[in-house]
Every structure is written in C-alpha cells, then in structure tokens.
Design a protein that fits this description.
The complex is a heterodimer. By secondary structure, chain A is an alpha+beta fold. Chain A has five helices and five strands. Chain A has one domain: 2-Layer Sandwich (Heat Shock Protein 90). In chain A, strands 1-2-3-5-4 form a five-stranded antiparallel beta sheet, with helices on one face. Chain A is globular and about 40 Å long. Chain B is of the alpha/beta class. Chain B has a single domain, classed as Udp-n-acetylmuramoylalanyl-d-glutamate--2,6- Diaminopimelate Ligase, Chain: A, domain 1, CATH 3.40.1390.20. A six-stranded mixed beta sheet of chain B has the order 1-5-4-3-2-6, with helices on both faces. In chain B, α3 links the parallel β3 and β4. The longest helix of chain B is centred in the middle third of the chain and has 10 residues. Classes of the chains: A alpha+beta, B alpha/beta. At the A-B interface, α1, α2 and α5 of A face α2 and α3 of B.
Chain lengths: 145, 126
C-alpha cells in the first residue's frame, strides 16, 4: 500500500447502490481539479475510479476506493469484499461480461470495465480469488517518464 | 457546430445550459453503454445517448465531454437534471432516434470521436 502521507481520501461504496454509481468518480475528479493536476491525467483517474466504483456496486457486498496523490504519480486502490473474479484473464477480455440487467440499465456491463481500467493505468495490479474480493492498485504517472 | 444549431437541427429542447448554446462541438459519440464511451470517446465532443440515468451525466463529466444529447425522447429524472446542473454539463433532448440524430449531424459535417480519452492531449479539448 502506498505511503499514508499521500492519502487524499477514502471513499466507501455499498454494493447494489446503483443510483449513485459514479458519484465517487465525480468527487475525486473535483478534488484533483482543485489541486491543479493536468486534465489529461485527471481523465485517466476519472475513468479508472468510475469503472472500479461500478464494479464494486455491481459485484461486491461493499468496498473502498483510496486516492493517493504522490509528487510524481496518482495511485488508486480499490478493494472490495465480495465474490471475486475466478478467471482474471477472461475478465480482462474486452466484451466479456457477467453483468445482469440491473447493471445494464445503468449503462454498464459492456465487458469493458477492467480493460478500461488497465488501459488508463501506467501500472495495473490486480489480485482476486473466488470469494476473496477484488484488489486493484492503479498507478498513473503525473509526469512523462 | 454550435449547440444552438444542433438544437435547431434536431428539434431539441434545452434542458440544462441555456447560457452555453455558443459552445462549438465538432465530434460526437453515440452509445447507450457508458463503458464504451469511457473506452472510446474523445473529450470536448457531444455524447448522443438513449441512457437517461445519472450515470450518463457522470460519464460525460469524467471525460470532459462538452454536452449530452438525449435521444428517443427518453424521460429524464429530476436526479439526472440536478446532477447535470451541478456538474455544469449542457443537456439537449430530442424525440428522434439515434440513427436519425447521427445521420443529420453527419450530414452537417460532424465527425466521429474515436480516440481514447486517455490519449487526448489537453490542447485538443474544445
């Protein structure tokens, strides 16, 4: 886990709370705008947090998203308590989805979520076991390396 | 195209953003699945969607999309409108189906936005 010194916020997310899906992403974006982070970096963070939030709401009992703002990078840690992902490689395939109708009615479940998160991250780390929840850590570099 | 021209072309109603009709939009993306928008849409463009949940607004906000055009005359909840106002995103509403909307806009020179949002440089945002 990144250094707590850089922890900007912890956001709690309740599973199946579809109405407010995306609210955490919007709040994190507002926070980063106020800090003067470049817009292109903020968009990556917004995509990652939106998809991670929707995944927790859709598939987990509950979870958290933690935002760390380090001098050279932003780190998003998303951890949930829930069913987990049995086959991560399969879940990363664009178009593969196990979504039900309640998720599709919200405009998600296209099978793009994890792939979007990976694409928007400079470093993408995922751990999951069936029944053990999902643990994501995404690093977005603020400066070009 | 200015939002005012888009409104006239599509017999649209301005739900949010009467004061923003001079915004110039040159690209558009049409989808009902927001993950596809998050994967492919370009900042500064127009989001054409039949999705009338608040997640359409939050997706537009995440990507710095210039405005939302809700098609097929979908009912918009108070929550949708409230969040669009809060996040300062113009919303237009038309009874036409997505095919009709896209066809009319394309004829007027609007093009598709197909680059990854994460690849778009800040200077390209309308």
């Amino acid at each position: 886990m990144p250094n707590d010194e850089y922890l900007e916020g912890i956001f709690y997310i309740q599973g199946r709370d579809f109405v407010d899906a995306g609210a955490v992403s919007s709040e994190i974006k507002k926070n980063l705008k106020e800090k003067g982070i470049p817009e292109s970096i903020i968009r990556k963070v917004a995509v990652i947090t939106f998809e991670a939030e929707v995944n927790i709401i859709s598939y987990a009992d509950q979870g958290t998203i933690q935002l760390f703002v380090e001098p050279d990078a932003i780190i998003i840690a998303a951890d949930d308590i829930g069913q987990g992902i049995p086959d991560i490689d399969l879940a990363l395939q664009e178009g593969y989805s196990t979504a039900d109708d309640s998720i599709r009615e919200m405009g998600f479940g296209a099978g793009m979520g994890l792939a979007n998160i990976k694409k928007s991250s400079d470093i993408f780390e995922i751990n999951s076991e069936p029944g053990g929840g999902v643990h994501l850590k995404c690093t977005i570099n603020i400066k070009e390396k | 195209m200015r939002l005012a021209e888009i409104r006239d072309l599509l017999d649209a109603t301005v739900i949010v953003g009467e004061d923003k009709l001079d915004i110039d939009v040159r690209t558009a993306f049409g989808a009902d699945l927001m993950s596809d928008v998050l994967a492919f849409a370009r900042s500064g463009g127009l989001l054409i969607t039949g999705l009338s949940t608040p997640q359409a607004v939050r997706t537009a906000y995440a990507l710095d999309i210039a405005a939302i055009l809700v098609c097929r005359g979908k009912f918009l909840s108070d929550k949708f409108i409230e969040i669009a106002r809060e996040l300062n995103i113009p919303v237009l509403w038309t009874p036409y189906i997505m095919f009709e909307v896209c066809g009319r806009l394309y004829q007027e020179g609007m093009t598709a936005c197909t680059r990854l949002a994460s690849d778009v440089e800040d200077k390209h945002i309308a």
